[in-house]
Amino acid sequence: MTYEITISDPDGELEATFVPEVGMIGSSLRHEGEELLHQGSGLQAYADHGSTFALPLLHPWANRLRSWDFELDGRRVALDPDSPITHRDAATGTPIHGLLTASPHWTVIDAERSVLVAELDFGAVPEYVAAFPFPHRVRYVASISGSTLTVAFAVTANGDVAVPVSFGFHPYLTLPGSIRRNWHVELPVARQALVDERMIPTGETESIARGALDGPLGNRTFDTNYDRLHGVVPEFTLADERRQIALTLISGYPVAQVYAPDSSQFICYEPMTAPVDALSLGEGLNWVAPGEEFEAIFTIAVSRP
What does each C-alpha distance from 181 to 218, 220, 224, 292 come to in angstroms? Predict the structure, then answer.
């Protein structure tokens, strides 16, 4: 039986469920009993195929890389396209979304009413460190206070080499009981990274004025990388006449992807610690020195108008 853990605040109206043995995925976020994460084809389809579902972690990279084989800081990263831990983007043929989809290797350290802590020793899993030869440990802390979910994710370099940081998250946010085209969005994005036919950044960019993309979602679609954001603590919002969801990048996330494909009943505001393809280029990365830690934090807050 799948082991699910639900956290909530006794004084709040929000609760979140996580499944440690399936990649520590956030499988549900409910406000007053209503689901705010798109459920797609469900947990089993995510576990089997990495299908669109809820709130997955993308590690050790978010979104796409241009190459399956490259050198980074003198170490060869050789990704096997046929390995069960790698994922090929069907549209572009590129490696996408890291190696930990549905990983069964998480250990729950603490689980209380409103806090869940789990860890994974990446370097202790042979197939992981063979694909990405930078031993490290990751720590996932999810907590709820009132109507706010906080997700803190940390990378500790527990080997003798520095570790590049390029992780992200992919929250498939939805507003139940309302029509997608009427959703109001606010996107604090300052610059778009232009991409080629494989969705890999070309190096060209376009500046975006503050508020230029705010307004009804309408028929707009997104699969867009923004490598600069407005504000010290950028806040992305999604709202209808019944509630607002605010995703705030508290620390460690200077980049974001927005994803809302045609006819979808969700929009993703994707926190990213580095630009798309940063690993294979070796650019735009934070590096964690041996014995040191890097932590990034975002929140999802729900409110009524």
Answer: 4, 8, 18, 45
The pairing of strands 235-239 and 267-272 is unpaired
Q: What is the pLDDT of residues 224-257, one digit of tens each?
A: 999 999 999 999 999 999 999 999 999 999 999 9
- What domains appear along the chain, each with residue ranges and CATH number? 5-303 (2.70.98.10)
pLDDT digits (tens, 9 = 90+) for 170-186: 999 999 999 999 999 99
b or e along 100-131 (b: 16 or more beta carbons within 10 Å of the residue's beta carbon)? bbbbebbebeeeeebebbbbbbbbebeebbeb
What is the torsion angle, in degrees rounded to the nearest 10, for the CA atoms of residue 265, residue 27, residue 214 and residue 176? 50
Residue 266 to residue 259: CA distance in whole angstroms: 9
Whether the CB-CB separation of 146 and 120 falls below 8 Å is answered with no
What global pTM score does this model have?
A: 0.97
Radius of gyration of the chain measured on its C-alpha atoms:
18
Residue 82: count other Cβ atoms within 10 Å of its Cβ: 6
Question: What is the C-alpha to C-alpha distance for residues 188 and 21, in angstroms, rounded to an integer?
Answer: 34
- Residue 88 CB-density burial (10 A; 0-12 exposed, 13-18 middle, 19+ buried): middle
Beta bridge partners of 64: 96
